[in-house]
Amino acid sequence: MHWSGAISVWSVVKKHHPYSIVPTVRGEFRLFDTASIFLFAMVMQSVSFSQLRSIPTLTHTQEFTLRSKIQLPLLIHSSSQQSKDIAYFDPQEHNISILRYEANGIFEYLKQVDTINVVSSMSFGNINNDGIDDIVVVQRERNRVILFVSDKITASYSKQYFSVGFYPEQALIQDISGDGIADIIVFGKLSSGVTVIRGKRDYTFGETKTIFSDFPVSSLTIIRLNGDNIPDVVVRNWLSNEDIFYFGLGKMQFSEQSALSYGADSTSALFEDVNDDGITDAIVTSTQYQSWGILHANKVSPCQEPRLQ
Fold first, then answer.
1. Is residue 114 within 8 Å of 148, Cβ to Cβ?
2. What do you get for the CA distance between the two ends of the chain, in Å?
3. pLDDT in tens, the chain (309 residues)
4. Distance CA 194, CA 240 (A)
5. For the purposes of burial, counting CB atoms within 10 Å of the CB of 12, is it exposed (0-12), middle (13-18) or buried (19 or more)?
6. CA distance 257 to 232
7. Distance (Å, whole) CA 281 – CA 28
8. How far apart are CA 116 and CA 158, in angstroms?
9. Cα separation, 294 vs 283, whole angstroms
């Protein structure tokens, strides 16, 4: 009954939204028709199942007032506790601070990490493998990033400055080289390429290298496209409006495999393993077509045409 309902909806909607995702000669995919099939099949299935179970609701636990604004909040581990705290930038007091999670949805002010005038974006990761998250801050107008490294013994943070390319917008703390050591990855759509500040085994940093230098990058995600232990990546080319998939070859070398090309459409993409097969899939939302689709990857092709399952 679930699928017959989905098919009947598809037969109506297909007339109004004729699009699908098909490969081109280059291995790209362009939006045309079967994404709506998948979408409405999943919607109808969810509606049918929801009649058989109660729908959970969110409960209001606590509302608390701070003395100033919260911007760029991050859920981080700022201690050895299993629960996560909130790190944020305060644009009025010009500092980065942390709210500690106490219990039952209650957060209390913990400490100030550092005083800082301008923050364009923040991210986190574990540079020194001490179980406490470190924070990387982008200062776009100054063409630099600041790394705040945690000290588990003193419960404090030390900071390091790194100069990067013109007008950076985002920074990540992840291992992009495949050596098991976290790197700092920086990019922005107003300059070409991705700056990688290579991490070392003593938790310091070595050489800075630029990759994907032929186009401006507005987003980058480290993904898994095959069975090896070398990181693969997908990057958004801001000029051509496409997500390009690369196999990692090791030693910071990458080989282009295929691309999701969106034309003039405004899209958002999320890359996660949605079917637990160990290979990253793509979830793409379309503003132009007011729809979304899931493209399943396998070890042969980074993305395949979506289909009902």
1. yes
2. 15
3. 322 222 222 222 233 333 333 333 333 333 334 444 344 344 334 433 334 445 556 565 566 666 678 899 999 999 888 889 999 999 999 999 999 888 777 888 889 999 999 999 999 999 988 999 999 999 999 999 999 999 988 889 999 999 999 999 999 999 999 999 999 999 999 999 999 999 998 889 998 999 999 999 999 999 998 878 899 999 999 999 999 999 999 889 999 988 988 888 888 899 999 888 888 988 888 888 788 788 876 654 555 544 333
4. 16
5. exposed
6. 10
7. 15
8. 14
9. 5
Tokens standing for residue 147 = 């790394």
Q: How buried is residue 145: exposed, middle or buried, by Cβ count under 10 Å (0-12/13-18/19+)?
A: buried
Tokens of 291: 């729809």
Residues in the chain: 309
Identity of the residue numbered 20: S
SS (H, E, C) the chain: CHHHHHHHHHHHHHHHCCCEEEECCCCEEEEECHHHHHHHHHHHHHHHHHCCCCCCCCCCCCCCCCCCCCEEEEEECCCCCCCCEEEEEECCCCEEEEEEEEECCEEEEEEEEEECCCCCEEEEECCCCCCCCEEEEEEHHHCEEEEEEEECCCCEEEEEEEECCCCCCEEEEECCCCCCCCEEEEECCCCEEEEEEEECCCCCEEEEEEEEEEEEEEEEEEECCCCCCCCEEEEEECCCCEEEEEEEEECCEEEEEEEEECCCCCEEEEEECCCCCCCCEEEEEECCCCEEEEECCCCCCCCCCCCCC
Which amino acid, 135? Answer: I
